[in-house]
Write a structure and sequence with these properties.
It is built from 6 helices and 4 strands; from the N terminus they run ααααβαβαββ. The protein has 190 residues and is of the alpha+beta class. It folds into 2 domains: 29 residues; 156 residues, OmpA-like domain (60s Ribosomal Protein L30, Chain: A, 2-Layer Sandwich), CATH 3.30.1330. The chain has a 4-stranded mixed beta sheet with strand order 1-4-2-3.
Length: 190
């Protein structure tokens, strides 16, 4: 019965055009389809950045204000266990959906750059969480490469507990996520 209610709520939100990838209840979190990812990542940045105002990838990684301009999607459906960067084999199909969208964007636009950001919850030290978030981003990039996304199209970084979706000091699965951004329009040389 509970599953049916969550499904009805999701369908109602979808019908109303208000579905957010992070708005579903924990038990109903789903992986966006390749088509949904293509729509989100293929969108224009929220603000036009003139070519002479573009920055290096290093500066972009340091500047949250610029990263937020890029089309992005939070991928919460890859279920990282507490303290782990391992992606379970049963979740490989989720990486495949992401890879399909990324490869379509690459075919359509040519040269593109995606920033894969790892995030953690707030349990543990800042240093340990930073290392773990970097490992999560690298793990996702390696999985995407196995599904045919070229390494040249990906940059990775980790932000540890810096950008919590759910502000809590407790273990919270929604904070253990990866954010994928198409940053081509913000970076020098693209």
């Amino acid at each position: 019965m509970t599953h049916c209610l969550h499904r009805r709520a999701a369908l109602a939100a979808l019908a109303g055009g208000a579905l957010s990838l992070t708005a579903l209840p924990a038990t109903a979190q789903s992986t966006p389809s390749a088509a949904e990812l293509l729509d989100r990542l293929g969108a224009d940045p929220s603000r036009v950045i003139m070519p002479d105002a573009r920055v290096s990838i290093g500066e972009l990684k340091r500047r949250r204000d610029l990263r937020r301009i890029a089309p992005s999607v939070d991928i919460q459906s890859i279920n990282f266990a507490f303290g782990s960067a391992h992606i379970p084999r049963r979740e490989s199909w989720k990486l495949e959906e992401i890879a399909i969208a990324m490869k379509r964007i690459l075919r359509r636009r040519g040269r593109e750059l995606f920033l894969i950001e790892g995030h953690t919850d707030a349990v543990g030290s800042n240093a340990a969480n930073l290392r773990l978030s970097q490992a999560r981003a690298a793990s996702v990039a390696a999985g995407l490469a196995r599904h045919g996304v070229p390494w040249r199209a990906m940059e990775t970084t980790g932000y540890g507990e810096e950008d919590l979706l759910v502000p809590t000091q407790r273990a919270e699965w929604r904070n253990r996520r990866v954010t994928l951004r198409r940053v081509t329009d913000l970076v020098i040389g693209y």
